[in-house]
Automatic annotation (TrEMBL):
Residues 423-447 are annotated as: Disordered. Coiled coil: none annotated. Keywords: Glycoprotein, Phosphoprotein, Signal. Residues 1-30 form the signal peptide. The lineage of its organism: Eukaryota, Metazoa, Ecdysozoa, Arthropoda, Hexapoda. It comes from Anopheles epiroticus. The keyword Acetylation does not apply. This is Strictosidine synthase conserved region domain-containing protein.
Amino acid sequence: MGLKGKLFKASLVLMLIAFLPGLPPKTVFPFKPIAISKERPLTGVLAPNQLLNGAERLHEGGLLQPEGVVVRGNVTYVTVYGGKILELGEQGSVRTVAKLGPECVGTYSERICGRPLGIDFDTKGNNLIVADPYLGIWQVHIKTGEKKLLVSKDNAIIVDDQAESEAVRKVRTRQPNIPNGVAVARNGDFYWSDTASDFIFEDAIQAVLCNPSGRLLHYSRAEGKSRVLIDEVYGANGVVLSPDESFVLVGELGGQLIRRYYLKGPKAGTHDVFIDGLPGAVDNLNGDDNGFWVGLVIAADESNPSFVSMLAPFPNLRRLLVRLFVLVEAPFRLWHGATGSDFALWATHHIGHLGGLVALFPDRGTVLRLDWEGNIVLALHNDDTSSHVISQAVPFGADQLLLGSPVNQWLGRVKLTPETLATLKGGSKGQPSKQQPTGAPPSREEL
């Protein structure tokens, strides 16, 4: 058979895989073209700089994938691979606050032993609220490590009061698949994100190739139930509440934007786009009285376009790629299910894991500072890869910024320049979003 014949047969097979009905996976929403706003140019307030260069590596080699970070005084709490929440003390001490799952057999067994992501301080007790994409959302006592499962992945009570039909309600109240971000309100309730519904966290590549199936939800501590606020979020990620809790924001990894859901006022119960066209994939959000920090985990710009945004307009191509991943992974999943083989577990973990693409990510690491009106106040970049792939930025002390990461084996720390501190203190206005909330929110109480 000649080369043309082989190419024809290969093309025919690929077309069958792409278009043949009934092949896995069965997605929540059908494959359709997705519109993603073009990234804002790296000019003005977004212009490249080296303000994050030379990041100090804290506990290098001892913190595996410190994704979520919160600070209280001089003590830092981080979520790391293996289902652990760690406390980092003033003198370099490290204490395991709690472990959510069983012991790991290797760095490829996260779906068994856990991989906590989002973390926030509880407002009703000395606890941490922790979201794990495999094990659900937990309440963890900071001192004793006592754990309580609040949102189970298998038996979560999710309700939807606004669905226009039973069929829609059934879809919107589906069980969570990737609990990710969490933000606790003053009354003890919390808002959380479910990144996607079609694949688990270790298959993130397949998940972002499907049409958006992430959600923003509100959990009532009194009822033990979650309510859907926004559905079809493209990679729902970090969550943060405004200081007066009049609205809640959720970051979109795939859409490179931030959505807003109104909790109070004339627009209560509605949502809109808070800001879009961000120069990277949005990860965690954390705020204070004057604004909030945004970690851009994968940089994107005119020279380094997002692979998600490039593929978004082409549903048939995305479906083909997803099906190819599923077909390649299927025999290893069957093998592991039948024998418990470690190699099969390793293979299923790495096929489709977003961490496998890190070498292809742009070198730029970026953190944004926004005010509560949607203005970009500051953009901090690096170009030396000392702290790129940034999941979260959290102030520490008077002049430092801690940088979490889903791939690094250390916690980054940079010292902010006097000019940066002056800008933060002055609240200088930068680039406004297309839509802005009306009025400046009052200060949020200290936790």
